[in-house]
Amino acid sequence: MKTITRYLFLVLLMIGFSVGCKKDTTPYDPEDAFEGGKLSQSPSGSFYIAELHGTFHQMGRQYGLLLTKQIGEFYTEAVTDFLIGEKGYSYEELLALSQTYYAGFPQIFKDYYDGMAETDGLNPDQTKIMASVFLAVYYTGCSSLSAWGDYTPDHMVVTGRNLDLAAANLRRFSKYFHIVVWNPTGFPASVANIDFIGSLFYQTAINNKGIFLELQNGQMADTTNVPGRKNVNHMLLESLFSNTSSKEVDQWFNTSFPSAGLIMNASFPDHATIYEWATYRVVGRQAEGLISATNDFIDPSWHNYPIIFYDSINEGISYTYTRRIHLMQQGEQNKGSISPGKMMEIFDVTIPDGGATFPEGGVVKTIYSVVTQPSELKIWLKVRGYSGWEEIDLKNHFKRID
User: Fold this and answer.
1) Cα dist. 119→38, 155, 194 in Å?
2) What predicted TM-score, i.e. pTM, was given to this entire model?
3) Domains of the chain by residue range
4) CB within 8 A of 303, min separation 6: which ones?
5) In this predicted model, what pLDDT tens digit does every residue of 283-308 receive, in sequence order?
6) How far is 274 from 208, CA to CA, in rounded Å?
7) What is the CATH number of domain 143-174+197-396?
């Protein structure tokens, strides 16, 4: 129990260990392909984009070699300097938790990391640890707003989301956020995921069918935990490779249940649904053109179930009610003109000024913000304190070859 407590104290960060001897020294040009994969950068150079093709094992090999340098740098800063040097965690502690984390992977992600270990300069155990960036997110924020129909100029969906964490230490690793795009053989969809380099902990992702999924903490409403269920982050990410329509997504949520409460924004090209996803029940909350979510369940049907309702008085440090109301007010004020650019403006407004983004100086930080237009397969990413809004056209990276 003492060891588990120490891990939860980290809240968010676990990454690799000592860099081993490089197994594959094949020279490569970062703008060129390696076994079908390609590494490029966003227009201003703020973010790397890894475009991968083939089986998951093949894509792991591509990823490991293309990002060997960045993985090594991340190791030095995050593991040597921070986790071991500053926090005093031992190799043995980190290794034990990483092995448990890896054991819970679906087979496709085991194959992926096995392939990565062949080329990334780390041994297999060290590569497994690199997967464990986010291990637990407790009582955090996160906000989303989706607009479509009469609220957007072309009636198509525009969605914005904030990833909020009580995690000031994350800021020192902001430059290691990147986008990885998997184009797997044998699956109907390709997927782009925003994460730390070398890691695998889904928070925000979109597939080439225009399905955007992002999660928000729901444990403030459903305090239940169900041990033994599959890792929900892995389940959600895996689902994006198979679900190709809003009907399939809805069926999936109604037949899959998390180990802890979550609130999911599922945005499609022409509408969005908020899934208030408890450990024992799911409600697909819908609206006509404008919908927002933070960290409370608000569908009226929950009044017959044992959940906690938060209001403007009882919202702790998360401002869950305030953030949601602010976003809805911003949406109504901008009805008819919510383009991606306008959504970026909305998510640049801080809570004291009538928005949902956490201001600097508090316990909870807005780590990054994302705006997406699913019909165009575009995202705009802003890592707070590191970058401005960066447009990434995923059509250039979703390239099916099967």
Assistant:
1) 14, 45, 22
2) 0.91
3) 143-174+197-396
4) none
5) 999 999 999 999 999 999 999 898 88
6) 20
7) 3.60.60.10
